[in-house]
Design a protein that fits this description.
eight-stranded mixed β-sheet; alpha/beta; Rossmann fold; 8 strands
């Protein structure tokens, strides 16, 4: 299959961790991957790894906290490919512990800048390109820590993880998932949130019990949904995650 015939997927924050494993998994399924990365050098290294495994990939400079960077990425994709088939909003930060001692307002602002504002702005910028696809999909990488039901259950395994910045940002991601699923439905764009579970990545200082590859599996599944697949939900590998 020629590159321009392969499904085209943009994964933000794709040079490491779950984002890289999502990109790698989609490449193995025949997608041409655009690895959105703040540092192009690291993105190029990740793309080289995917190409060495037989996939096709390019690095794209992308900082989701910078509107100019988002616009430039959208222009590049439009000029080169004229469409986008899959958007995976993976870029995210967890700063509650990393910035411990900093003013809460700063922690909340920096967290939402990436996890929420960046996701929404990237989605808006890529929506016209996705509307040109015959099978467009958006996957928002969320977390069970953004679930009100989970956070309200004192017996849940993650009950002790009460981080104002991160948890509330992922609850906002879930709301954006519902909103964009409704707004983009007329274009055939399916929008879902993926809960990868607690994976060992840089985000949590590699404290998780799951691998990044395990966490990526549900996002890959949602990115490749059939036309009768769901939209507007949050899922882990076992099924729907309660709001």
């Amino acid at each position: 299959m020629a590159m321009n015939e392969a499904p085209l997927a943009l994964v933000s924050g794709a040079n490491k961790g779950i984002g890289f494993e999502i990109a790698r998994g989609l490449a193995r399924l025949g997608h041409h991957i655009l690895l959105g990365c703040r540092e192009l050098r690291r993105g190029e290294a990740a793309a080289t790894t995917i190409r060495a495994e037989g996939g096709t990939a390019d690095a794209v400079a992308l900082d989701v906290s910078d509107d100019g960077s988002i616009a430039a990425a959208a222009e590049l994709i439009s000029a080169r490919f004229a469409r986008l088939d899959v958007l995976v909003n993976n870029a995210g930060v967890s700063l509650d512990r990393r910035m411990a001692g900093s003013p809460l307002r700063d922690i909340m602002r920096e967290t939402f800048e990436v996890n929420v504002f960046g996701l929404a702005c990237l989605t808006e910028a890529m929506a016209p390109l996705l509307a040109r696809s015959t099978r467009p999909r958006i996957v928002n990488v969320s977390s069970s820590l953004g679930s009100l039901a989970v956070n309200s259950d004192p017996t849940h395994q993650f009950a002790a993880f009460k981080m104002p910045g991160y948890n509330s940002s992922k609850a906002a991601v879930n709301m954006l998932t519902v909103i964009y699923a409704a707004r983009l439905r007329e274009h055939g764009i399916k929008v879902n949130a993926a809960d990868p579970g607690r994976c060992a990545t840089d985000l949590n200082a590699h404290a998780g019990e799951r691998t990044a590859a395990q966490g990526a599996a549900i996002a890959i599944r949602l990115a490749t949904l059939d036309d009768d697949g769901p939209t507007g939900g949050c899922f882990d590998e076992s099924g729907p995650v309660p709001w």
